[in-house]
Amino acid sequence: MARNVVVIGAQWGDEGKGKVVDILSSDAELIVRFQGGNNAGHTLVVDGEKTVLHHIPSGILHPGKLCAIGPGVVIDPEVILREIDALKARRLLADDRDLRLSGSAHVIMPWHRALDLAREESRGGARIGTTGRGIGPCYEDKAARSGIRLADLLDRDVLREKIARSLPEKNVLLAKLYGKEALRAEEILDSHLAYGERLRGYVDDIPRMLGRMEKEARSILFEGAQGALLDVDHGTYPYVTSSSTVAGGACAGAGIGPTRIDTVVGITKAYATRVGAGPFPTELHDEVGRRLQQVGQEFGSTTGRPRRCGWIDAVALRYAVRVSGIDGFVLNKLDVLSGVHPVKIAVAYRLAGEKVFEFPTSVKALEACEPVYEEMEGWSEDVRKARKMSQLPAAARRYLDRIQELTDTEILMVSVGPGREETIRIKNPFD
Ligand code: IMP
Q1: In this structure, which residue's CA is closest to atom 19 in ligand 1?
Q2: Where in the chain is the domain with CATH 3.40.440.10?
Q3: Which CATH class, in words, describes the domain spanning 106-199?
Q4: What is the DSSP string of 226-245?
């Protein structure tokens, strides 16, 4: 039976969605991205070879699978073209029809990148720590109804007019407010018409395609970017990204009704990480935090920035489960915790002398929260060869059981290493 599955991050992004989507892609016929842009980055290791993708769903590594980018995504044409070239150089994406891009997806223009960087610079100590890819400014223009969509790159007159309407205002901001160089309309018009020509064959109507796949009872996998706690409405605002990263975002961003989603899978690491600024109650500033960063190779695949590391947070996970309706978790990077004694789980926060079990909606309150930890015995064994739960050390199994109990959510899969095969599969969300 066909099933439609949404995969999202349940923390602050970088949970390892790429590997999970790559694995689950074998059960889906179409893999769709629905929000975010090239602020995301998936590092995939297949047969020992590393591939980093920012725009294109990880499903593209499976020849013959359809991959789509929905209207809710923002696309940097130069970046996606580079990805297409890199895939082709590895003899992937042999058939261009396997990649479909929504003509309604908004385009990240050079002024979006320039403004993102200039604003961050001007914020000084109050910066958000964005990826600098122009994501926020692009979504702003979309909401302001002045954005440029992918289909606009296919029409010289439309693109010229839209650039002429946008650029003067952006140049005032760039040159007058931020003291940066103004951008030139003609150059942008020429380069973007050229991008449009190269992308023309990929442009499609994604919601219509989803409707067709549904009618034909074919399974669809919706691939989220970033994580629930970076959601523009439900995350730690303003330290968030500019899109809906919760599971509901899949419906709005791809163009499918909520009644058509069968299962929501949340991805979490065995610990927690965050890149950029913003509250992170379980953050570690000690040897354990440094160890997680080194062993877990916690450096951004988009910006290379070191990720802040800390203990897993059951309060935050319960919140993510609630706002996204997560049916089951995939827990990644269990191997990174081998040799850490004891292991800790935040089960509540202490706020103004009170114990709280709900994730606060205000950043100020969250900043004031002290985690209440439950300590558990760690394990020293290398777990990378485990393929069944029974092959894990008893302490690791107890740790996983406790996470399930505290979040009232089952674990469907456990990743014990970066490779595709280094995975314990308990339950397939497509079954
Ligand atoms: P932006 O999405 O570039 O505007 O960045 C806003 C915030 O989201 C910053 O804290 C970024 O570090 C964070 N962020 C954006 N994309 C990702 C991601 O893919 N993984 C983790 N953090 C991200």
Answers
A1: 40
A2: 4-103+203-263
A3: mainly alpha
A4: EEGGG-TTTSSTTSS-SS--
Nearest to 367 by CA among 359, 375, 355: 359
The segment(s) of the chain belonging to CATH 1.10.300.10 are: 106-199
Q: What is the pTM of this model?
A: 0.96
Residue 187 CA to residue 353 CA, distance in Å, equals 59
How far apart, in Å, are the Cα atoms of 104 and each of 38, 205, 208, 385? 17, 8, 12, 45
Looking at 3.30.390.30, 3.90.170.10, 2.102.10.10, 1.20.1050.40, the CATH number of the domain 268-425 comes to 3.90.170.10
- 214 C-alpha to center of ligand 1: Å? 32
Q: pLDDT digit string (tens) for 172-189?
A: 999 999 999 999 999 999
42 flagged as catalytic = yes
What architecture is the 4-103+203-263 domain classified under in CATH? 3-Layer(aba) Sandwich (3.40)
pLDDT block averages, 10 residues each, the chain of length 431: 93 93 94 97 74 89 93 98 92 94 98 98 93 97 98 98 98 98 97 98 98 95 97 97 98 97 98 96 97 95 90 98 98 98 98 96 96 98 97 98 98 95 96 91
Of 33, 127, 241, the residue with max ligand 1 atoms within 8 A of its CB, to mutate for a pocket test, comes to 241
